[in-house]
Design goal:
Layout: H1 3-12, H2 19-66, H3 72-82
């Protein structure tokens, strides 16, 4: 809900708001929305990074299952190179 909608809701409950209070409410809502969007983006980014890490590990495990002479380190490096 944006700031103007929240101001309208406050008025609906009979609160008398000055222009300063309306401005403050609107500003706080804008800030809250910005912080929420930042959190969502951070969560998406972390999720994508985790998925990449999981895929790299799975691919490395597959490589090691196919070649018993392949070290875990080499398998991880190969998987990272392929998933670039």
């Amino acid at each position: 809900m944006d700031g103007s909608a929240k101001v309208d809701k406050l008025r609906k409950y009979g609160l008398k708001l000055t222009k300063d209070v309306e401005s403050e409410v609107s500003e706080m809502c804008t800030y809250a929305t910005a912080m929420e969007n930042k959190g969502i983006e951070k969560g998406r980014s972390q999720g994508m990074q985790q998925e990449k890490t999981d895929n790299t590990k799975r691919l490395a495990e597959y490589f090691m299952s196919q070649d018993s002479n392949l070290s875990r380190k080499d398998a991880m490096e190969l998987a990272k190179e392929i998933l670039k």
